[in-house]
From TrEMBL, chains A, B, C, D, E, F:
This is Agmatinase. Mn(2+) binds at residues 122, 141, 143, 145, 227, 229. GO terms for molecular function: agmatinase activity; metal ion binding. One of its GO terms (biological process) is putrescine biosynthetic process from arginine, via agmatine. PANTHER family: ARGINASE/AGMATINASE, GUANIDINO ACID HYDROLASE, MITOCHONDRIAL.
Amino acid sequence: MGGNGKEKNHAAELSNHFSHLKIADAIENYEDSKYVIFGVPFDNTSSYRRGSRLAPNSIRIAYDNLESFEPNYGIDLTQCKISDLGDLSVYEDVSYVLSEVEDVTRIIFNDRKIPVMIGGEHSITVGALRNLKDVSMVIIDAHSDFRDSYFDNKYNHACVTRRALEILGPNKIISVGTRSTSLEEITSPDYKKVRFITANEVRESGISNVISEIKNSISDSVYFSIDMDGIDPAYAPGVGTPEPYGLSSVDVRSILTSISDKIIGFDINEMTPLYDNGNTSMLAAKLIQDFIASREKAILNKNIK
Amino acid sequence: MGGNGKEKNHAAELSNHFSHLKIADAIENYEDSKYVIFGVPFDNTSSYRRGSRLAPNSIRIAYDNLESFEPNYGIDLTQCKISDLGDLSVYEDVSYVLSEVEDVTRIIFNDRKIPVMIGGEHSITVGALRNLKDVSMVIIDAHSDFRDSYFDNKYNHACVTRRALEILGPNKIISVGTRSTSLEEITSPDYKKVRFITANEVRESGISNVISEIKNSISDSVYFSIDMDGIDPAYAPGVGTPEPYGLSSVDVRSILTSISDKIIGFDINEMTPLYDNGNTSMLAAKLIQDFIASREKAILNKNIK
Amino acid sequence: MGGNGKEKNHAAELSNHFSHLKIADAIENYEDSKYVIFGVPFDNTSSYRRGSRLAPNSIRIAYDNLESFEPNYGIDLTQCKISDLGDLSVYEDVSYVLSEVEDVTRIIFNDRKIPVMIGGEHSITVGALRNLKDVSMVIIDAHSDFRDSYFDNKYNHACVTRRALEILGPNKIISVGTRSTSLEEITSPDYKKVRFITANEVRESGISNVISEIKNSISDSVYFSIDMDGIDPAYAPGVGTPEPYGLSSVDVRSILTSISDKIIGFDINEMTPLYDNGNTSMLAAKLIQDFIASREKAILNKNIK
Amino acid sequence: MGGNGKEKNHAAELSNHFSHLKIADAIENYEDSKYVIFGVPFDNTSSYRRGSRLAPNSIRIAYDNLESFEPNYGIDLTQCKISDLGDLSVYEDVSYVLSEVEDVTRIIFNDRKIPVMIGGEHSITVGALRNLKDVSMVIIDAHSDFRDSYFDNKYNHACVTRRALEILGPNKIISVGTRSTSLEEITSPDYKKVRFITANEVRESGISNVISEIKNSISDSVYFSIDMDGIDPAYAPGVGTPEPYGLSSVDVRSILTSISDKIIGFDINEMTPLYDNGNTSMLAAKLIQDFIASREKAILNKNIK
Amino acid sequence: MGGNGKEKNHAAELSNHFSHLKIADAIENYEDSKYVIFGVPFDNTSSYRRGSRLAPNSIRIAYDNLESFEPNYGIDLTQCKISDLGDLSVYEDVSYVLSEVEDVTRIIFNDRKIPVMIGGEHSITVGALRNLKDVSMVIIDAHSDFRDSYFDNKYNHACVTRRALEILGPNKIISVGTRSTSLEEITSPDYKKVRFITANEVRESGISNVISEIKNSISDSVYFSIDMDGIDPAYAPGVGTPEPYGLSSVDVRSILTSISDKIIGFDINEMTPLYDNGNTSMLAAKLIQDFIASREKAILNKNIK
Amino acid sequence: MGGNGKEKNHAAELSNHFSHLKIADAIENYEDSKYVIFGVPFDNTSSYRRGSRLAPNSIRIAYDNLESFEPNYGIDLTQCKISDLGDLSVYEDVSYVLSEVEDVTRIIFNDRKIPVMIGGEHSITVGALRNLKDVSMVIIDAHSDFRDSYFDNKYNHACVTRRALEILGPNKIISVGTRSTSLEEITSPDYKKVRFITANEVRESGISNVISEIKNSISDSVYFSIDMDGIDPAYAPGVGTPEPYGLSSVDVRSILTSISDKIIGFDINEMTPLYDNGNTSMLAAKLIQDFIASREKAILNKNIK
Ligand SMILES: [Mn+2]
Ligand SMILES: [Mn+2]
Ligand SMILES: [Mn+2]
Ligand SMILES: [Mn+2]
Ligand SMILES: [Mn+2]
Ligand SMILES: [Mn+2]
Ligand SMILES: [Mn+2]
Ligand SMILES: [Mn+2]
Ligand SMILES: [Mn+2]
Ligand SMILES: [Mn+2]
Ligand SMILES: [Mn+2]
Ligand SMILES: [Mn+2]
């Protein structure tokens, strides 16, 4: 039994009949795509409720039930040039995973495509940021994630914003939805270098004032990172570290879609199907659609290709 | 062993000790009832998350925990002349089921009673509509349900509003909560013949403006159909096709109770206990109570019997 | 709106379209039936894992998936003259419920029919026994149920066998599968008046010796009561009081079917869908089928009607 | 083997290595504590969805994931002098349990400490109230709990507010979130002696008006009782008796924290992990933190110790 | 943005970092593989408990936890030349799916490789069989699957064995574990053309006699089809149509591994993760390993490559 | 508020009303006890299905439902002098936890008491073994746990038997139920220094021969460690790493109780309530009872105190 030409034809012929699980609207190859989706099934630094390693496929399965047409923007997602690379090969070590994410997103950024990374836990965001400078960052998160290290690990998912600050510098990061932090974090002199808009502040100021503030302070290139626990557990029950009194799903969508034309990288993370009723996977899937559809619409409106 | 008179007395005597599962306030016989509840345990055209065939009994069990007294309206539901016929005998074929629903609701409408149909999937609504003309229809739904056919089936649950339009004609149908539709549907020339009030529009206009619009456009006879997925998954997690960014449970109640005096037929559908924590069954049970109590109160206020 | 003749015809006409949830093979009326199934949705004396009140409908729903034909006996269950009365109307008080069960089963016994009672908790058995004398009783149970009273209640489900002994007298009761009892029970002078065949003894003697012993000691009329926790939790996970090291499902079937020709009353109880994966409901449903099919076959073989 | 001195040293030495499950911030002994947490794992008068007996430990496990620092108030909970006594030893009889609660809270009140009682079912509140007079009471609840007795039991959880009225007298009790009551209750002449602020009224008046009313009517000492079903099932799915159309979690927090400086006793009850996705336990845990942190902050602001 | 050479290198470079979900030991390409695994995520003719469409990925995820080394046979699965093609692209129509399965397995059979098909429902087996003649077939199944058609569909999963008989002819098929059939099936004149070894017969004869009978009657080429419901629900709770009194997992393994050297095609189906605790996925994964490891060992022993 | 004498009396008085969750029969203080139960809520080296950190309390809650009287041995467990210390205080680092277990069990062994340790994961066993020499060890496990290190950690739960061999030396350890190992492990020259009795071997030899072999090879002092995954997933579904084809629960009980008179230390581990239906907790609770009751009975028989 060998690998002669005839058999290779069979492999090719067979591949027409098969598909790997991917985001339903990701009908393009990498080369022809603008949005490059991939999963990072890693949850090794999480301690409370694990399972975010199972999220990428759970979100792909949920996405399958969404219409390709997004009526708010009049956008057909199958026209949006989306590819889905599958899941990054990961191992136990967070440093290795971050380095893999860094390598992969470097290629994608260099090709002027937009990475759409599905976690896994929040720690993975740092790998993508390492390729960036002079960009703003918007984070949705219940937690400040501002520890210098956690369990002796600087790359624990509780340290993401701190690592981001080191990479991007002061006054570049806005984190929305904060309602959990530690004394150690809040009293850090660096804490003020990030703008934490608490969930209470969103409720008090109103979402449109929050969006105005964000719009006024970001630069033209934004990395957007959604930790699903930023959203209230009523809307996103299946997360690793639920915190009451969160943002509404609609407010998170508003923030995302109001600045999507500036977004050059995107991730969504910390969802765990082990504690979900299916609706958190669905919301994560929809947020990916909202991001791409709103961005395409904004670009159409600007007559920019 | 036979069927002599003595034994028949025994059957009658026994029946005093037994009850079939029914809506707790449904203490009337059909003849003496005004509201005629029945279940349609059918979910055969559903593909994503099945299980709505199990909803009627799940809702009956949940209803059992509600008080018979509805304090918002000061109405005692046991005085409302409600009967519960049990579940329609259904088979695999949707056409057969629609024809059964048509036959049964024809009798109920002819007797000037109000059918309260518990699905099962949304497709069943079409059977009831076939008996009606010159009525308005109000639908709560996340989906436009406006496909001409789906999987080669014109009676799939994705085609309900389209079928309704064919029966009732243009400018008769208002569907509230829309946030999922396809390009094929939205570009259909018939799409404008239905008023789709999107969930976004409800949030932007406010529920009282939406209710005003509905009140201004409906006729004196309204068929009201609640696809539970119109409500946000936070409030109604156990549905077949969850869609984020939905209506609040309170807003749906407001729409329903503000026009209940004009409602001549009612259904509630697409709930599935397989994905529920029990609270969707409870909300469906309560919406049935809200409908009947608010309608009875409105009628009392009008001094109409 | 009234109750005139025309409307009554409508009620009758409607009833052709509807069915209440019942055991699928229960196609007879009470008068024409030989086996009279009914549920007793009562679990009020249970303290550990409640929910057996939900079992009757759960078992009916599972039964729906069984074939009507039982191949081990070549019996078509739809020919077995089975009726299903629905669920007994129960209230919180166990004494009331027992008295209802007593009244209902008295009628059934008097009509020379066989009650097939679906619990609900084990306590309900006592109501049926009150109508019987000079009968043997076979119980499947992990527990001796031999307390004189429990939580000040002589009718708690922990006292069933003790109450049965008081009704039927010594050397009439065999309880198979025992593996949990208290010092108070085992040292009671009455304990020896019941033959407790422990689960260990079944494993050591072998099921055929156990069946021989049972056959040798019972009289021609047997009441058979299955507490589902007699079966090992591997086969029957959804029970109120699981006990490891139980009987196999096949052994319980063997005991039941080997003496079914003598059984004049039957119940199955203590199943709770709240802790089930669906398979305990299915096993309970199948045991009902096994009982009726094996009994009918045995009667056919004896040329007895 | 004996109890000599040497061994006792071992017991003491061992105890340094062990901890019993308790609220993570409860690092004080009873004597040195101001807030005295304890569980009452009792759910025996509950009939619909049991399981609140499992809530105290479920809430302790959830609490473990909260930060000790509460950023809204800038309070470190480990500085708040909290002890956790474990769970009250309970038996089946509600009268016994109430008497135990009464004894325990008498000691705590006499020591001028604040009991923080974790149910279990709502009935337990009555035990604490028996030690109080001339205090106001604020209740969060979906139900009026105003039956005189239920299932022949005056201490059923459906009678809590009625019992409270008998103890505290008229115009002392405000119950917020009401949306379920019976005709018997609402027509009782005593019903007006309690101020029931319905969930509808909260939505219509706005939460700040509600809080103003509460502040204006309470005395300087308030007992605060949270029946978790007062909160909407979207935020608190795991409760024994869910009722749609409830209060938001944020509104309940606002009421609680706005008057926490006057609270001299607190309980939280009716949560059941059997129907939870983990988020109801977390919300209950957080409400305990909100209570203590906001109270400590208010006291700091008043320069009162 | 285009598709120039440089970008294509990037796509290739990226692909080194990614993998699609596949059976962990499937480290070969199609050309170099001997065992060709693929999923068929189709469950459209199933009516009772759907969800087998989700089984292929659930089994792949479970497989990930198995050691690559199979100690019973001393075989390292990574040396067994296994490929995993992913999941067949399926649509709603069973005829289309069967035709796809037929096309794909024809190529695999022609390349003298062994298809290892993961369902989805049992109906898919028929597609593979269409390529075969002069082979024996061994089926593990609780059901005779011998209806001529079901719900007007000859390719329903209840008709698999009947269709197989039409393809393979009489005395070629052995189905083990039968315990559910209908009168219509068992009285069909064709029923005797298949050897149904009931689960009872397995228990009575003993598994080694059953294996001897199978070995004596099969030809040198065998197609092996495992409907997971053949196994008792204690071992395989997560199936679409559970039937009590089934085969033990060990007996099914014994049958499979005793003849694996003759197996030229294999499938495993009817597992549904929606009703599973994870252990049915794991058992299905292990049976795939058992098949391949035992077959490789048998071939090694025969000095056949 | 201080710590004066009067208040201390209150603390003591209060403690009479409270209990911490413990094994129901553990009514003794440490000093007066012979069996010292404690939990080790640690699962940090587990990667597949976490949650064994939640097992100690889950097992305590299940135990609550067992009778104190064990009828197989005629032993009243409340007479067996059992204490429950609660849960060891653990942190993230496995080395720290092992050192804590070592310290605690050293004290217990020195006091000639028997530690009964409830995991948590299997890794914890090593801490207890460090205090022992010249003892035999019997392990129940599906896995050989014989890796030298895993994820760079010599104390991972996959290395337990290897570490045990280093401590106890060759020919001292018997591990029963093996069915998963790696090539690296089985080819290690040290593998033969442990007697691995595979699950297949148990089925082929019969449990009594296995027990004879064990009795013949052990010394007078035995440490017994039960990894719950040694038992088949049918009986123990809630484990971290399920493996099909395991031991029956009855066989594991037989092994344990046949040598319990020689056991000087005992642990039970790897149970996880997150994947359980409640029955694995119950089986673990019962195995603790079986151990103590059978050991006490054996000692009684020997007239040894
Ligand atoms: Mn985060
Ligand atoms: Mn977070
Ligand atoms: Mn619809
Ligand atoms: Mn819909
Ligand atoms: Mn019993
Ligand atoms: Mn029992
Ligand atoms: Mn209450
Ligand atoms: Mn309440
Ligand atoms: Mn089949
Ligand atoms: Mn089958
Ligand atoms: Mn182990
Ligand atoms: Mn293991």
